[in-house]
Amino acid sequence: FSSLRTAEDDAGYAEMAALMDDLARCQPGYLGHESAREGVGITVSYWTDEAAITAWRRDVEHAAAMRLGRDRWYAAYRLRVARVERDRRFDD
Prior knowledge:
Number of helices: 3
Low-confidence stretches: none
Number of strands: 4
Order of helices and strands: EHEEHHE
């Protein structure tokens, strides 16, 4: 999920983001997520399968947050669903 925030209305955004973070962690199939924001925001969430992704998208509280995002907090966004084929890591 990549997004461009609106400049006008920030009220409630941080609280909603924290609520969605907590809610996602409780969902069956949730594996974790990573986020960064420097102008454009990027959040990548990881799920066991497409059924878990669909269930998250259909969650009532998440759906309400998505509507608020479109109405108040995001000027634009893009959602991509992709499969991770390989994951490598380097730690210094």
